[in-house]
Amino acid sequence: MSQDILVQCFVEALGVQAPVVVDSLKYNSIAQWDSVAHMTLIAMLEEKFDLMLDTDDIIDMSSVAKAKEILSKYGVHF
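and the corresponding structure tokens:
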């Protein structure tokens, strides 16, 4: 379930199809994942998972795999 929520957040924030959202997808590796989309993604993740990410985690969230790692610190299980 957490995986589905994560993928949906990326799909909505970046405007991409679900198959694009793989662990190896990295920030700025596609045109859609720019700084504005990144902040939209952060806001969606915070809302959907009911948490508040700290600034370092927001900056460090550089890939789908890193997003999972960071969210895991907040008790989200994948």
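(Above: one complete record from the training split.) The radius of gyration is 11 Å.
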